[in-house]
Amino acid sequence: MATGAAGAAAAAANAIRASGVVVRVKPEEFAKLLARARDPLVVRAKGGFFGKKHDYLMSYKGLAFYCTADEPLPLPAGVELVVAGSIYMPG
After folding, report:
1. How do 41-47 and 80-83 pair as beta strands?
2. pLDDT at residue 88 greater than cutoff 70
3. Taking 70 as the threshold, does the pLDDT of residue 26 lie above it?
4. In whole angstroms, what is the distance from residue 59 CA to residue 51 CA?
5. Under a CB-based contact definition with an 8 Å cutoff, are residues 85 and 68 in contact?
6. Which of 29, 34, 37, 58 could disulfide-pair with 25, CB 3.0 to 4.6 Å?
């Protein structure tokens, strides 16, 4: 049983290393970063139970920023949007 737990922990660590640094922020902070970004690319997916949450992911200055919102976020004109089936965040 300990081998299974160690394997799961190693898999989680590998997933984090593969995804790089992801910073979870509140929707208000995500909107501020989005307003500062030039030519932003945003990935959006519905998440949560019955798809009631809205997940967003974007890169800014080498870091990936992620947020979950109860309502869709207003996106500024010029945002390149990718609609995904889901966004997986390790841990």
Report:
1. parallel
2. yes
3. yes
4. 23
5. no
6. 29
Q: Please tell me the pTM assigned to this model.
A: 0.76
For residue 20, give Cα distances in angstroms to 33, 39, 62, 88: 19, 21, 10, 13
In the chain, pLDDT over 70 holds for what percent of residues? 76
Domains and CATH numbers, the chain: 21-83 (3.30.720.90)
